[in-house]
């Protein structure tokens, strides 16, 4: 068991720090004890433990103290993080979300979070997802490693059985806590663990190992699908006409040229960086967006944002794009950059205009004087540029003494020598 774990940890030996997700249960207790013991004779990154307290049951109030005693005995520093679990349909999912948010916030650049999921957990995950009708990505179950914030999540025990962990704990006289909720078979995973898996292993003793191996095969298949998706996306990842937007987008035509299955595969791969992926039923909205009339501006609402079609491209907008800025911002010193509440920053290139300077947003009916064309409606001018509609309500407009003088990042509209540069907010895209 030790050799297998060290083999899987070898690529992470140069990380700045290893964090162990310590629940106090069997799995994480064995993981921490083994690492702390090996660190006495081996060269590891600094070791640190994190205990997340969800506050969902009275029994859990004693677990931070238990974890502290264990860490004190092993000489490992411990951080206890208390989280609030959002109410919802699935308490398990909400607790997991809160837990991993806490882990992500704790990780520094390049640091590694080590968790104690083992082979039996992997088998249960595969079975659970199979019963939910998951595709290849879901049936790959838990990856051995993945990105987590600015660090990495690594599961070094995925090839080790629960029986092996119990044997290690007993041999080293370890104490661990048992979560009372683990026996509540109203939770799907507990039902699989307590009632279903014993029946399966009673008939097929190697079922956990076999199911974990099937998950590994699925992970390999998913890797091949990812390679195919990356090739398909290269053709669609052409630069748009407005690179300053810095909004993820794809050219639609190369995607439409693919088969339906390859379209879904490419989009799943691309969207995975931004949002929770849609289920099978939700994918019915993709053809509606794809096949809408060219003049339409269809929207596909997803878990963490929206996919829009405009100007022959697909655009990903996070939830932060929903609230458009309102009102006006006075600019008393236009020679200096101006921060816009919730909307990035603007600055003027060249000489600052004289007069009362303000930044406003579209309300409708704005007109602008254009050299050689006279007064023109702003809506018509923006239509001529092809600027996607979703940007227009957020686009800063420069007013001098009440007159519309410049439109951010579109100096050709005014043609009067005033160049307003806009840097959209960096958090307008929330990458997962």
UniProtKB/TrEMBL annotation:
The keyword Phosphoprotein does not apply. It catalyses: cytidine(34) in tRNA(Ile2) + L-lysine + ATP = lysidine(34) in tRNA(Ile2) + AMP + diphosphate + H(+). ATP binds at residues 23-28. Its main location: cytoplasm. Residues 357-422 form the Lysidine-tRNA(Ile) synthetase C-terminal domain. The keyword Signal does not apply. GO terms for cellular component: cytoplasm. The N-terminal region contains the highly conserved SGGXDS motif, predicted to be a P-loop motif involved in ATP binding. This is tRNA(Ile)-lysidine synthase. It comes from Pseudomonas eucalypticola.
């Amino acid at each position: 068991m030790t050799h297998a774990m060290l083999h899987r940890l070898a690529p992470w030996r140069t990380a700045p720090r290893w964090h162990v997700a310590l629940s106090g249960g069997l799995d994480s207790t064995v993981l921490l004890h083994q690492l702390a013991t090996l660190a006495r004779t081996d060269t590891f990154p600094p070791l640190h433990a994190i205990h997340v307290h969800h506050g969902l049951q009275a029994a859990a109030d004693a677990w931070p103290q238990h974890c502290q005693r264990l860490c004190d005995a092993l000489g490992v520093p411990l951080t206890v993080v208390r989280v609030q679990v959002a109410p919802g349909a699935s308490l398990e999912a909400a607790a997991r979300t809160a837990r991993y948010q806490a882990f992500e916030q704790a990780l520094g650049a390049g640091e590694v979070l080590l968790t104690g999921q083992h082979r039996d957990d992997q088998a249960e995950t595969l079975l659970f997802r199979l019963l939910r009708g998951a595709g290849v990505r879901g049936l790959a179950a838990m990856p051995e490693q993945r990105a987590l914030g600015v660090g990495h999540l690594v599961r070094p025990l995925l090839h080790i059985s629960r029986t092996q962990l119990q044997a290690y704990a007993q041999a080293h006289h370890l104490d661990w806590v048992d979560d009372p909720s683990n026996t509540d078979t109203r939770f799907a995973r507990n039902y699989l663990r307590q009632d279903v898996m014993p029946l399966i292993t009673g008939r097929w003793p190697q079922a956990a190992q076999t199911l974990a191996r099937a998950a590994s095969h699925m992970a390999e298949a998913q890797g091949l699908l990812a390679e195919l998706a990356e090739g398909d996306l290269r053709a669609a990842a052409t630069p748009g006409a407005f690179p300053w937007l810095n909004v993820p987008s794809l050219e639609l035509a190369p995607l439409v040229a693919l088969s339906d299955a390859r379209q879904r595969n490419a989009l799943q791969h691309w969207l995975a960086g931004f949002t929770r992926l849609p289920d099978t039923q939700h994918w019915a909205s993709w053809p509606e967006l794809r096949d809408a009339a060219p003049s339409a501006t269809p929207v596909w609402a997803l878990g963490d944002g929206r996919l829009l079609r405009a100007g022959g491209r697909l655009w990903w907008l996070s939830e932060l794009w929903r609230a458009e800025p309102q009102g006006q911002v006075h600019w008393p010193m236009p020679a200096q950059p101006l921060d816009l509440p919730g909307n990035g920053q603007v600055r003027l290139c060249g000489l600052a205009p004289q007069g009362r300077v303000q930044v406003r947003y579209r309300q409708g009916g704005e007109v602008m004087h254009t050299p050689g064309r006279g007064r023109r409606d702003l809506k018509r001018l923006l239509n001529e540029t092809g600027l996607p509609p979703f940007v227009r309500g957020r686009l800063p407009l420069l007013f001098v003494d009440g007159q519309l003088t410049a439109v951010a990042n579109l100096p050709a509209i005014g043609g009067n020598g005033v160049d307003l540069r806009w840097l959209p907010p960096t958090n307008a895209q929330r990458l997962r």
